[in-house]
Amino acid sequence: MSVAGLVTVVVPAFNAEQFLGDALRALAAQDYPQVEIVVVDDGSSDQTNELATRTPGVHLVTQENAGPSAARNTGMAVGNGEFFTFCDADDRFRADKVSKQVRYLREHPEVGCVLVHHQTFFESDVTRPEWLTDEDGVQPQSAMVRREVVDQIGGFDPTYRFTEGFEWLGRMRDAGIGIGVLADVCVDRRIHHTNMSYERADLQHNMLRSLRDRLERNRRTTA
């Protein structure tokens, strides 16, 4: 049973002690009054669990390591929100991120999901690869969705290592769910050594897989 107006922010966290505090402080500073913070500790071996436990207003859930998609799904399963949104443990929401997305969904009842732009920033000890820009862009994981959308199409596919957000959006589109995009930059996306462990080829491979899966779904639907 959901609580009207409540936004559940799911924070998947794996060995996130270095940056989780920044993420949680930014969530506590949201200008929207009805925010539920759910941190899902995805089998961490560092102080992630302890940090979340001693942070006021945080609902902590622990699970064996299963990846960020499974962690987001776990958070949605225990969340009480009318809306769901997601914050990676190394990113930061700007203060008006949640309120802007809620306002958009209230003003556009035909839309089930709204995306915002992010601004990438690099830790001082990270060398930016040529293919990764610091321009603002859209990150599917920072979407806000209505609970009924999740009830209809399910959560993230945990078999995707990368691009799970794009696969999820593809399922929304195939189900006829409206998707909106705000031009506002509302998330600061941190790039550091840990989340630089993937290569461009990995991303391309998973994007192609997402497209193949979507084509196969459409083929079955029209057959």
TrEMBL record:
Residue span, Glycosyltransferase 2-like domain: 8-129
One Pfam family cited in the UniProt record for this chain: Glycos_transf_2
Protein name as annotated: Glycosyltransferase 2-like domain-containing protein
Species per Swiss-Prot/TrEMBL record: Intrasporangium chromatireducens Q5-1
Lineage: Bacteria, Bacillati, Actinomycetota, Actinomycetes, Micrococcales
